[in-house]
Design a protein that fits this description.
Elements (H helix, E strand, L loop, with lengths): L30 H11 L16 E5 L3 H12 L3 E6 L4 H9 L4 E4 L8 E6 L6 H7 L1 E9 L20 E4 L5 H10 L9 E5 L3 H10 L5 E5 L1
Parallel strand pairs: 1-2, 1-4, 2-3, 4-5, 5-6, 7-8
């Protein structure tokens, strides 16, 4: 299942974005099962937008769920400064982000303490785009990592001026995945996983919308 962020979005991946039945288990999985889950989450589709922001030093993640909680660890490992944006009032996720190395965490309605060199928008909320541009420095790249997004509202040209740019990322190559799999143990990447049975997919989506878990949701088949 995908990043909760400021709104749910769909995914083509069986393990990618997230009550009737509730999660199958919130306990830590056993060694073999845990390794399978971690491998699933470390595939190429866990890396949307990572390469597109280039060498940004101050990077913003809008929506801090499945993808962002992994990329945060990689970015910190690379010496970048991470600024995490969540739903307003989601202090638990903000604390989670800081625990993974984010320098600052707040709501998507807030301005970061310093302007961003680049940003990845995981939340499927088009209305965020003007706010992200407003938080960005000259020459910053703002990347939408979602498959779907609500309409982006109009905004004054001055937000795009000074060589800021908007873009999107849909797919990555096998080489991207292999490079990441080689890097992950060096960080090392630690994933937070909540598992659901396949028949609990609707419950998982409801939990995603409500922000009831942190990290990623995985459907077990």
């Amino acid at each position: 299942m995908n990043d909760a962020g400021d709104g749910p979005r769909a995914s083509r991946s069986a393990v990618a974005a997230h009550r009737a039945a509730g999660p199958a288990s919130r306990s830590r999985p056993g060694p073999d099962r845990g390794r399978r889950l971690r491998r699933a989450l470390r595939g190429p589709d866990r890396l949307p937008g990572a390469a597109a922001v280039g060498e940004a030093e101050r990077i913003g993640f809008y929506g801090f769920g499945a993808s962002a909680h992994i990329l945060c660890q990689v970015a910190v490992h690379e010496g970048r400064r991470v600024f995490a944006f969540t739903r307003e009032g989601d202090e638990a996720t903000q604390e989670f982000a800081r625990g993974l190395g984010a320098e600052w965490a707040g709501s998507s309605a807030e301005q970061p303490p310093q302007q961003l060199d680049g940003a990845i928008v995981f939340a499927a909320v088009g209305a965020l785009m003007p706010a992200v541009l407003r938080a960005s420095a000259k020459g910053a790249r703002v990347i939408s990592a979602g498959i779907h997004m609500s309409d982006i509202p109009s905004f004054p040209y001055e937000l795009l001026w000074e060589e800021r740019s908007l873009g999107s990322v849909a797919n990555l190559t096998r080489a991207d995945g292999e490079e990441f799999l080689a890097l992950a143990p060096q960080v090392p990447v630690r994933t937070e996983v909540t598992t659901y049975p396949l028949e609990g997919a609707n419950a998982a989506l409801e939990d995603l919308r409500a922000g009831r878990f942190r990290g990623a949701a995985v459907l077990e088949i």
